[in-house]
Specification:
The complex is a heterodimer. By secondary structure, chain A is of the alpha/beta class. Chain A contains 14 helices and 18 strands. Chain B is an alpha+beta fold. Classes of the chains: A alpha/beta, B alpha+beta.
Chain lengths: ~400, ~200
């Protein structure tokens, strides 16, 4: 089969690799019909996440058709499924608490050592996201082996709902929703959202649905800010305006009640701390650029709430811990517990309450994946979301 | 064998002895625990049947049962070798704990116990405590660590494979297909042979 493989920083290829097979009873093999490139794939592309190996198949946002099911799978060939990016067993303690991204049963025991060293406990297995999270082949491919297929995948019963409408249930839509949920939004709140990529834009929508009175969206890409404005957000372009000053003034000197960092470890902008962080990253003295989370902590009102869906991988200097404490802030974060949100969000989509198709700026055949990565990386203003369609080549051929 | 019981001396905290700072750096005692969402009796019953352990213990080549209490264990060792010894269950309480000890003359003298403690709605805490004498002492253990045969690491991995099998019904592999799974195993075997 054809698949998008990682070979090093800014080097991804479309290659022919061995097809996947059923290895465990709960497995299924899916023929991928749609798969997206995620902002967090760019962290891999830029070499920020350790433990990838040349030839690893990328991709954790995908859906498709079941072609084969293991003896303990509940799926049947021919069913259309959306697959969560977290590989969770559904039966352990973490799963029973609906903390699905805490499930260790999908991460092979011999892959758990590094997570334990880095984070104190191993991470869940994730598709196509380094060997820290299991070393699974991802979904930017024609076929994928999906473990725990009786628990994770959501069967899309309605064939009239096309892929574009439900694909983002795999990751970014639940991630945007959980981001807003973690911000503990109360009616009348003013919520500030840093980063208007897909997760940020879904967080804007979700915050309004949860009762926020005002949402202030922050970015420097005009097209993305325009999309946020379309959903009712006020905007701050950090190249035009000073974010902290603007936020204080726009909130009567109090600061936003809740703040959401949808940026993570690759913050843009020529700020002194960012440059210092970048120097350390390039000299292997550090891993994360933390301009956004620092600013979030300073801007948020006393007693306010911070939600941090943005991905961080390592350690950070000059973290304003004093401000966090003195202001009595609450910080909530984590990899998304996708399985918790799949069904309710599917219902919201089917009822027309949430639209996610506006995001898709490009649809490309799978073999143009490497070009897709370059575009998504270099043209972030207009390139909001790239969907790869493994079937497109055949159609256009 | 009471591994937990401390020498006569002064006041100690309540942490397990295996976490002590003043334990000998060449310690030959490891302890690992894991919480499994199944009843203690289920886990005990599974563990007590030697035929079940081959899929769980990564380095186990075979267990040859001699009688209810005696069995011959063969495990992979560094350098592509195998090590065998006779293991004797010295004490057990069904559903609670199993103690074992290697018989006289074992290459890797070892003893230990595995306990199954009820943990309410979290299931059961399974804890393994193992005392061993590795081949070649500290050097042997350094080599072993390089090839992931270090007993503590191995014990942890094995307990997590046990957890996966008992909770999820299968042991996780991230291989894409049989060929990749076999290649990964071969890579490991080759690396061992190069010692």
């Amino acid at each position: 089969m054809k698949a998008i493989t990682w070979h090093g920083k800014h080097d991804v290829r479309c290659e022919t690799v061995d097809d996947p097979e059923i290895l465990n009873p709960r497995d299924a093999v899916i023929r991928v019909t749609s798969t997206a490139i995620c902002g967090s794939d760019l962290h891999l592309y830029d070499g920020y996440i350790p433990s990838l190996k040349p030839g690893d198949v990328l991709g954790h946002e995908f859906m498709g058709e079941v072609v084969e099911a293991g003896s303990a799978s509940t799926l049947r060939p021919g069913q259309r499924v959306v697959v969560p990016f977290t590989i969770s067993c559904g039966r352990c303690y973490h799963c029973s608490k609906q903390q699905y991204s805490g499930c260790e049963n999908g991460n092979p025991a011999d892959k758990q050592d590094m997570g334990r060293e880095l984070y104190g406990q191993p991470m869940a297995g994730l598709f196509g996201y380094s060997h820290l999270t299991g070393g699974y082949s991802g979904g930017q491919a024609e076929y994928v082996r999906v473990p725990f297929s009786d628990f994770g995948p959501l069967v899309i019963p309605d064939d009239s709902i096309d892929d574009d409408k439900v694909l983002f249930l795999t990751d970014i839509l639940p991630t945007g929703w959980m981001a807003a949920e973690n911000a503990g939004i109360e009616p009348g709140d003013t919520v500030a959202v840093w980063g208007c990529g897909p997760v940020g834009l879904f967080a804007v929508q979700s915050a309004f649905l949860m009762g926020a009175e005002r949402v202030i969206a922050i970015d420097h890409f005009h097209h993305r800010l325009e999309l946020a404005r379309r959903f009712g957000a006020e905007t701050i372009d950090f190249e035009q305006s000073k974010v902290y000053e603007a936020l204080q003034d726009m909130t009567g000197g109090i600061g936003p009640d809740a703040s959401i960092d949808c940026v993570g470890l690759e913050a843009h902008g020529a700020f002194a701390d960012n440059i210092w962080d970048q120097i350390k990253v390039s000299t292997l003295l550090g891993t994360d650029r933390g301009h956004v989370i620092r600013q979030v902590i300073l801007a948020t009102r006393k007693g306010g709430r911070i939600s941090m869906p943005g991905v961080y991988g390592g350690v950070l200097d000059k973290f304003p811990l004093g401000a966090l404490m003195q202001k009595g802030l609450t910080l909530r974060t984590g990899q998304t517990h996708v399985q918790r949100y799949l069904r309710p969000l599917y219902t919201a989509i089917a009822e027309g309450k949430i639209d996610s198709t506006f995001l898709i700026s490009h649809r490309l055949p799978l073999d143009q994946g490497p070009e897709g990565y370059r575009k998504f990386h270099d043209e972030q203003d207009t390139c909001t979301k790239i969907v790869l369609k493994p079937g497109l080549e055949a159609l256009s051929a | 064998m009471k591994q937990e019981q401390l020498s006569e001396t002064v006041e100690r905290d309540d942490a397990p002895i295996t976490a002590a700072r003043d334990i000998h750096p060449d310690r030959t005692l490891v302890a690992e625990s894991v919480t499994i969402s199944r009843s203690a009796q289920d886990l005990y019953d599974f563990w007590r049947n030697p035929a079940n352990l081959v899929q769980v213990l990564e380095n186990l080549v075979s267990i040859e049962v001699r009688d209810r209490h005696r069995s011959l264990w063969t495990v992979k060792a560094p350098g592509g070798n195998e090590v065998s010894w006779e293991s004797v269950v010295t004490k057990e309480e069904p559903g609670r704990e199993i103690y074992w000890q290697s018989a006289e003359g074992a290459d890797v003298a070892n003893s230990g116990r595995i306990t199954f403690a009820d943990a309410g709605d979290r299931g059961t805490v399974v804890r393994a405590v193992i005392a061993y004498s590795p081949p070649g002492g500290a050097i042997g253990r350094t080599i072993a660590r390089l090839f992931q045969r270090e007993p503590r690491l191995q014990t942890r991995r094995d307990l997590h494979r046990f957890k996966q099998l008992m909770e999820a019904g299968e042991i996780a592999t991230s291989a894409r297909n049989r060929r990749q799974r076999d290649e990964r195993n071969e890579d490991q075997a080759l690396a061992e042979k190069r010692t």
